[in-house]
Amino acid sequence: MLNAAPEPGLTAARQQAVVAALLAVLPARCVLSDAEDTRPYECDGLAAYRQLPMVVTLPDTEEQVIAILGVCRELGVPIVPRGAGTGLSGGALPIADGVVLSTARLNRIVRLDAYARTAVVQPGVRNLAISEAAAPHALYYAPDPSSQIACSIGGNVAENSGGVHCLKYGLTVHNVLRVRVVTIDGDVLELGGECLDSPGLDLLAVFIGSEGMLGIVTEVTVKLIPKPATARVIMASFGDVVTGGNAVANVIAAGIIPAGLEMMDQTSSRMVEPFVKAGYDTDAAAILLCEADGTHEEVEEEIARMTAVLEGAGASAIAVSQSEAERMKFWSGRKNAFPAAGRISPDYYCMDGTIPRKRLAEVLTGIAAMETTHGLRCANVFHAGDGNLHPLILFDANKPGEFERAEAFGADILALCVAVGGTITGEHGVGMEKINSMCVQFTRAELDAFFAVKRAFDPHALLNPDKAIPTLNRCAEFGKMHVTAGRLPFANLPRF
Amino acid sequence: MLNAAPEPGLTAARQQAVVAALLAVLPARCVLSDAEDTRPYECDGLAAYRQLPMVVTLPDTEEQVIAILGVCRELGVPIVPRGAGTGLSGGALPIADGVVLSTARLNRIVRLDAYARTAVVQPGVRNLAISEAAAPHALYYAPDPSSQIACSIGGNVAENSGGVHCLKYGLTVHNVLRVRVVTIDGDVLELGGECLDSPGLDLLAVFIGSEGMLGIVTEVTVKLIPKPATARVIMASFGDVVTGGNAVANVIAAGIIPAGLEMMDQTSSRMVEPFVKAGYDTDAAAILLCEADGTHEEVEEEIARMTAVLEGAGASAIAVSQSEAERMKFWSGRKNAFPAAGRISPDYYCMDGTIPRKRLAEVLTGIAAMETTHGLRCANVFHAGDGNLHPLILFDANKPGEFERAEAFGADILALCVAVGGTITGEHGVGMEKINSMCVQFTRAELDAFFAVKRAFDPHALLNPDKAIPTLNRCAEFGKMHVTAGRLPFANLPRF
């Protein structure tokens, strides 16, 4: 376990000064500094990395956000923004001499305009709470990450989150119209707007997915869309993963954009079925879940076309949900795949590579071969329509050498993703977990461009430093720059 | 006419030095400096503003683009990038002591992958040429600005162009997967990618719509989408513009996303009909064109739903295209509205404000009242579904005072757009035409943020300087900053 707290004496003096400065501008309830209070903030969803922060702040208002940034700017204290802490790449991992700025208390739905189909919410509002508030108007917020019951819209903005429906409805960047942000200098910017396009540079898009590096979001205007009249899902079985992978490409090539197009291999379906009883075909080497939504006519027409394509692609069995309850049952297994992995394996390591869709079959075959090489099982459950893989490498950290083998396995998967023209992360972000792999993905000039924009917003590098973009020094130490094939030296990451 | 050429002697010496430096790195055919050769580059689609450039360069390759930027960087020469020159906001207006960098010769379709549904093209490729190349695969490139037969994809990227189908299929930013750009320092960056999402900051989105301020695009990867099996268009007549405007909002509120949703008022339909013979109802105060595309079932279902909504909203007559020929005829009038304006009026001034859709009726009523105030006619023909207005103010520049009245009329329209929560430009860009209005739209901190990003890419302000983002000095002189109501002092723009 990573535990990089500096010398205790040094921290205590510094901590006192920072806490005093924060208490001068904030109510006491907004500042936590005792270890017992800050412990819940020591990690996010990438729980293998932990670090107690010097201070946690919990602002109630935008004015308090400005005040916190003012204190940090004056005293040169780094800031780690934090949403609900469900992120999977360590983007909210604290810094020992830094402040965590949690948006948990900025949790009001400011207004919901059913006619304009927009909601204005504070960053701490949970993803699902927006759809719940919009439900009486038959509207909802489309992006639905697995963590949607817990994750916050501010975190979604930071990570550009997706979900099972983003193939048809887009990522966060396609569903957010406007953000209000506070810069490190205390300026308030309104980026984007409710119109089709906004003049000037598209800074809204830059903020979305910027992993807390550019400013603190204090308000988000999201698009709401009409809840489809109906939806049905096909469960199609395949005798091998290659046939299943090709079927995905065929659905898309037929001009169909399913509302969801997810794949689970046999390891995944057998892992999930005893736990969730979703009715999965556990004899199949792979199953595809293909959803159609829209009006009744559209859904019937699309289900018929998808069925024909899947049969033509070699599906060995096809089941179509006959009721909303059955549709939810089919999805329940997919949505519970991660918890199910926790039931059958002491530990798992979730990867997030993305590949061009047409290379799916090839990459799945490659991963299957790696199971033998590394002597570990890997459950593949993923957003097939987007080419966004989530291989779950199963291991037991208590068995000597297993974690190292899992790590090497993960490195091989990412190397394969990059080699076929893909990327090292689809929707989980870079955070601190994949920062070395960024040296593999990008050229020096491209990383320079990222840093130039980062510096434009945060010249003193106080906002979530050392996350998301590796310094050129780091890449030099890591010894890699834009090598788009071959094994990633992922095993050089700090041990835990 | 604007003609701000500096002292001839000064220009000649400087011109000789720059031309010599360019000829040292480029073939002679790539460098134009005689006035007779550079004359065709003196303006773009905003032809009222003209300026001969010092030199025009026409690179054949990316290496030559790098070489041109190198010369300009060394000698401190400003660069105005130029696509096909069809832009309507003066974004490609030359600078007297600057170089025009035309992408006209970078016009190869590098590759087209029908299976992955992408095309990789050079920036000088015409918008329509991409769809023509994709047609044998039943694919096309969706954004379709009016100028699509002539405009280039590089210009589309610079302006984030839309078109009549962008309500359903998005703007350029939603249809470009990757750009390859050369920075002022000569670095080549690949921004974006063919995967769902790319790690790091979303610099692709920043480049799209950046009006040539950040770098030179040398290659663009676009999404191709399946040509819909069929399409039909409804022409609905309304007795007044308010009823028509409300009908637009009702269609959207009913959860329908038409493939196109355009409105023309009576001035427009009467202007167009004698010229195009599109079969328009010239007795109606306004007509709406509502297109459905998709499979036959989808189209029939959507046409039926739209018809019901339009009838419910008070349409006085409804006609549905009965053949592809009739569909094209209905659209021909809309697509030829600008040329038709040129036939009935010596001059016209095209505005490009965008408003929240639900304010349409109110803004149209406001514009009608302004016709009386300013004593000029205004034809309204626009992307109603997007709330993107294109009022065509008709005037005769040869009649004393008419241009000034047209300008004041335009200013009032933009002021109304901003007052109802809209923006000063939808898809034509800011260029030099609307640069003062940017002071009205944005706060000082927001303009600062734009400039910080601009400087991150172009520290010496050589790329299309003085376009798109006003300096704070300019706003101070202009005397306005973020006044979101009241009359814009648009009449302070340079006279022509």
UniProtKB/TrEMBL annotation, chains A, B:
Presence of the UniProt keyword Oxidoreductase in the record: yes
Keyword Transmembrane: no
Keyword annotations from UniProtKB, A to Z: FAD, Flavoprotein, Oxidoreductase
Record organism: Janthinobacterium agaricidamnosum
Phylogenetic placement of the source organism: Bacteria, Pseudomonadati, Pseudomonadota, Betaproteobacteria, Burkholderiales
Domain of life: Bacteria
Residue span(s) of domain FAD-binding PCMH-type: 49-227
Pfam families from the UniProt entry: FAD-oxidase_C, FAD_binding_4
One Gene Ontology term of the molecular function aspect: oxidoreductase activity
Database matches in SUPFAM superfamilies: FAD-binding/transporter-associated domain-like, FAD-linked oxidases, C-terminal domain
Protein name listed in UniProt: FAD-binding protein
